[in-house]
Amino acid sequence: MIPATFPNWGERSWLFDKSLQYIMSLDLLYELPIHPDAVVGTTTRLPMLAVPPPGPDRDLADKWATTYRTSGPPLFRGVDNIEREVPEARLVRGQDGLTLREEGGVELDGHLLLEVDTTEPIVLSYKGVLTLSGGTMQLARPRVPTKPKSQLASAARDGTTESYIGGTAFVATRQEVSIPKYRWLSFNQFIGIGRVKAFAPLHDDVDPWLISMSFDLYLGL
Amino acid sequence: MIDAARLQRLHPGKRSTLQDRTLLYLFSYDVEVETDPQTIGFFPGGVRFNMVARPNQSRAYNVMRDRTVAGIGVPAISGALEWGSDWIYWREDDVEFSQVRLSITTDEGERIQGYYPVIAYLGLGGFRRLVSEKDKVGREDSPVEGRFITTPRFETASPTYAWINDLQCVGFGRLQLVRSEFRRLSYDVYGLT
To answer: Which of B119, B163, B167 to mutate to test the interface with A (most CBs of A within 10 A)?
Structure first.
C-alpha cells in the first residue's frame, strides 16, 4: 500500500519549492543567410552558422568569451557547498537550425563546439524558442522588411549605430564534457534565459541577418 | 562577406549584469507509474527501460484552482493525463538520460502534447545501486523521494491553448522510488518569460 503522504495524492493545493541558480552566461552571434527555398510545408527551416568571438588574443579574451560569469571568479557553488569550475570557453564552431512557423515563435536547435584551456573540447547543445518583436517570419523574407519605428531599437557601440529587432529566447541546454574539472556540466541540464538582437542585412541581396543571442544559464533546484 | 569590424562590433561582449527573468506558473500534474516497467536491458554503457503512466490515475490541474493563468489571463489547463511514457537510459557514469512524451486531454476535450528530456545525476555509485538486485532503493512503506528538474515543451492544435506552443517551460518535480522503480511523480510547470 503506497502511503498517501506523497505528494498529498489527489490534487495538491500548494506549489513545490523552486529556485534557479546562476551558472554562467553564454553569448552567441549567428549569420543567417536568406534562403528563398527554405519553406517546407507550413514551416520554414533556416540553418545559421555561429561566428566565433574576436580573439583569441589575451586582450580580446577579456572583452569577449562564449561562456563566462558576469562577476567574480569562474566558480559555481551548488547546494552541496562544493565549488566547481565554470569554463571560460570560446566558440570553435556552431550551428543552429531555426524552424519558423507562420503562427508563432522560432524553434531553436543549436549545437556548439567550445574550446577551453585544455585539448578536449566541450560540446553544448540546446533547444528552445525565440520570439521577435513584430513576428519571426521577418527572418525568412528575402528582402529586409520595412520596419515600423516601434519595432526597432538602436544599438550604439563603439560609436556606430545599427538597427535591430529585439526579442527573447529561452532554451534548455545539455553538455558533454570529458575534462574532469568540468565533468559536472554533463550531469546537469541548464535553463537559458536570453535576449536577442536581429540585425537586418545592410544590403538586401548579399548580406545575411546577424542574430546576436546572450543567455544566462541557470540550474534548477 | 561581412567585414570583420562589423562582426566584432555586433558580437555580444561580456556582460556584468544578469538578464531579467520571470517564472510564470502554468499548471501541475501528477503521474502514477505502472509498476511493471518494460525492461530493454543492458547495453554498452548502461541500461534501458521504459515506463508508462497509469492513464486513469494521472491528472493535470492548477493548484490554486484558478480558471485562468495568472499574469496572462489565458485559460488554465485542467484535465487527464491520458497517456505518458518515459524512455530511460541509466548510464554507468551515474547519469540518467530519458525522453518523456505525454498527452493531456483537457476537461473540454482538447489535446495537448508534451515532450522533454531529463538529465539527472544518480549520485556517486547510483547506477550500481539502482540496478543491483540486492539493495533495492525504497520500500512500499518508506519510499525514497527525490527532486528533479525538467524542461518541457508543449504543442496543441487547440486555439484555446495555443498560447502554450511558444513557451519554453520548466518543471520542478518530486519523484518517489519503491524497490528502485519509479512509482509517482508530481510536477509544477512554469513558463519562462
So the answer is: B119
